């Protein structure tokens, strides 16, 4: 086993990671393959917790643009993240992991409420904790929830799974000589408005010295490789 570089990380997965090849919803195969990636990651990092987005089901801002009340739409978006967390929990447990879902909007029949000290204890015991319902507040995103929970859980890093293998100087699909950054500073990400995570999430990580590791979550084995210090990623610090 490779010596861990990280003892505890928070993994942020957008809802889209659960869609697979579909345009909407939850694809069981995509969820199962994510669960395998997460389990493999544990060989390199004993403490794992997750924040799952909800964009594969419902996004508050997009719904508000079509006429929904923004705060109500955001609550619907937060409920979507609970469905995703429960789907991922099921897949992880099928593969033998012990998990807990903690929801920022109390939902006693399907999850624990978010209780920081209890979540810390679960992680200490080797359970994978899935944080659902974002921050519990409208007008936020699950990126900000990820930064917040990473700080609260004392994580060494926030791993942001995307569909590209890091942060580029330009869109690599459009610009042939776009260059991938190995490392970037928080201030460069904020001043150049690089679309990594929203600005409040980046600022929260900066203020709490939590590096953001941007990596491709769609490439099998990559999360474990990056945790082992070998994979391709961009580190914002
Ligand atoms: N949301 C919210 N407060 C939060 C986190 C999320 O209101 O703290 C709502 C918001 O409407 C958002 C939706 O939940 O659009 C789904 O989250 P997000 O868009 O961050 O999911 P992702 O893009 O990561 O799939």
UniProtKB/TrEMBL annotation:
It comes from the Bacteria. UMP binds at residues 54, 74, 135-142. It is an enzyme of class 2 (transferase). It catalyses: UMP + ATP = UDP + ADP. Pathway: Pyrimidine metabolism; CTP biosynthesis via de novo pathway; UDP from UMP (UMPK route): step 1/1. One of its GO terms (biological process) is UDP biosynthetic process. Belongs to the UMP kinase family. Homohexamer. Catalyzes the reversible phosphorylation of UMP to UDP. This is Uridylate kinase. It comes from Sphingomonas lutea. The gene is pyrH.
């Amino acid at each position: 086993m490779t010596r861990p570089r990280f003892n505890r990380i928070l993994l942020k997965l957008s809802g889209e990671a659960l869609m697979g090849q579909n345009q909407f919803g939850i694809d069981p195969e995509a969820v199962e393959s994510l669960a395998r990636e997460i389990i493999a990651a544990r060989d390199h990092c004993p403490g794992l917790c997750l924040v799952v987005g909800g964009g594969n089901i419902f996004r508050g801002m997009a719904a508000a643009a079509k006429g929904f009340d923004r705060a109500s739409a955001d609550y619907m978006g937060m409920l979507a993240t609970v469905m995703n967390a429960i789907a991922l929990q099921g897949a992880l447990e099928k593969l033998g992991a012990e998990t807990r879902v903690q929801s920022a909007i109390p939902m006693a029949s399907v999850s624990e409420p978010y209780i920081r000290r209890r979540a810390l204890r679960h992680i200490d015991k080797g359970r994978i904790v899935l944080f659902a319902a974002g921050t519990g507040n409208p007008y936020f995103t699950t990126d900000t929830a990820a930064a917040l929970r990473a700080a609260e859980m004392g994580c060494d890093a926030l791993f942001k799974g995307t569909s590209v293998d890091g942060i580029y100087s330009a869109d690599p699909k459009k610009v042939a000589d776009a260059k991938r950054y190995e490392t970037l500073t928080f201030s460069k990400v904020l001043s150049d408005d690089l679309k990594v995570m929203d600005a409040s999430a980046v600022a929260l990580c900066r203020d709490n010295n939590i590096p953001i590791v941007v990596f491709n979550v769609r490439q099998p084995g990559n999360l474990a490789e990056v945790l082992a210090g070998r994979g391709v990623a961009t580190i914002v610090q």
